[in-house]
Write a structure and sequence with these properties.
Layout (H helix, E strand, L loop, with lengths): L8 H13 L7 H19 L5 H15 L10 H29 L7 E5 L5 H10 L5 E5 L3 H11 L13 E4 L10 E7 L8 H13 L1 E10 L2 H15 L13 E4 L8 H4 L8 E6 L9 E12 L10 E3 L4 E3 L2 E7 L5 E6 L1 H4 L1 H9 L5 E2 L19
Parallel strand pairs: 1-2, 1-4, 2-3, 4-5
Antiparallel strand pairs: 5-8, 6-8, 7-8, 9-11, 9-13, 10-11, 11-12
Helix pairs in contact: 1-4, 2-3, 4-5
Amino acid sequence: MQESSMPNIEKQVQTLTNYLWSRKLPAEPEELRKKAIQLENKLQQDAGSLQSEKQLHGTVLNALRKTTYHWQKLSYDEKLSLVYMAARLDGGFAAVSRAFHEIQARVPDFKPQTLMDFGSGTGSVTWAAYNTWGQSLSEYLCVDSSAAMLALAERLLKGGLDSGKPHVPGVFFRQFLPVSPKIQFDVVVSAFSLSELPSMADRTEVIQTLWRKTGHFLVLVENGTKTGHCILMEARDLVLRGPEKSPLDRRPGHVFAPCPHELPCPKLSASQHQACSFSQAYSTIPFSWNQSHKEEKFSLVILSRTLPEKDHQWARLTQPVLKRPRHVHCHLCCPDGHLHHVVVTARRHGRHLYRCARASTWGDRLPFTTSPEFPLSSAQDPSDN
């Protein structure tokens, strides 16, 4: 960063951070076509035959430009890659580390040897994987369409030098996914990359390719926004829908985390769509403009080739725990596929479960395997307590 001597780097970092967080999906052609027909019909009714066909088309196009999200593909050159590194390296590392910890904690005997990272960027997935399974991993394949990003990631592995021994051995860089469908990796990751694809068709193709290359776990991470959550639910449904034609690996997909079920996401089917997101605290890179600690808000889905263990069907905390004297408010996604707001007390649920709930944090699992008893009635409000 010092060698680059870029002006207003702090402002550029903040601008890019805000832009990535507010990013939405590009409009699909069919969606635009429907909007255009609706606008045209409305204008014809309002204006009658006052406008010619050419004027009407021009008015519709202007209206679409004003009301449709203008999605643009980001092209990462050397300068923008540095800005992205300063903005996202530490937060991305924190989110992916949290996802890897979920696997490590629940399947401690899992010792992956190979990992592929799609949209590898500055290499935060490699660092997180090395930190988690460095003793067993022998091959890391980083795939990114930006040559500048790959060069920066390689330089970071070498301690900021252009040449030298990389800190993490066995890392390989490519601009394109491996062609052979027979090659599989123990862990396949896509972190903050699916949202950079220009259409649903592209996302579908990439997700199917990543799943074909998955030997054990497919880890998908996106921003903790409605858009990020929708992308992950789209990918989850695509894998759960069943195998594609003539699959080389016929093992079906299962949801490993965070969902305790394989039913439709209750947050998507709610009257008001909510993002299923989690938060991870982390220490930031000590740039002059950075706070020492931040929170990374992210959404994730981990898909597995094997059926999860019996305790997979434990409810998941979807919000921070609200602690009050002698009771705890827990918002849970439960195995029955519904969201429940439960008041946990020692008298109703037992001393051990109460202590467990009180010590738990947002994103943890609680051992409710059926619909929780004693739900909070709709008339009650936790703020009353």
